[in-house]
What we know:
84% helix; mainly alpha; extended; 0% strand; 161 residues
Amino acid sequence: MKRKSVIILIVIFVIGFASGMFTDKMIEKRRLAFSPQPPSGFLSEYLALSKSQKDKINAMHRILYVKIAELRTELSQKRRELYKLLKNPEQNTEEINQKIDEIASLQKDIQRESMNNLREMRKVLTKEQQDKFFSLIKRRLNNRGERWERMLGKMKGRKGW
């Protein structure tokens, strides 16, 4: 009985270890496996996009996805490098801060590309569609801020983890 328990624990450990090794790579492949998608059914219907508008937006998105995939690949690499620096027992604060700056710069570049894409999309949309589109963006951005505010409110008064 004791031997069976030990064997079961070893098998569970090996499975967990093996899946941990491959999960990170699988997640990254899925995340980077962008296949430029047409505007979602929701967005297309919400804005009542014409076929011409959909085609133009799809072309813009194909270009955006390539740029962002390259930046995200580099970002993932920099994060892995930061992890290695943090894991090192003889941490070099200068190197860590430099890596953080590189990561922040890549995040800024991704944000800039996304905003440039929105500006280009704006040229394809009518005034009414622009109003609806930017209203939707504003609601999404505000909701994110409200979530953080709620979380902050819950955290006040707590002591540690």
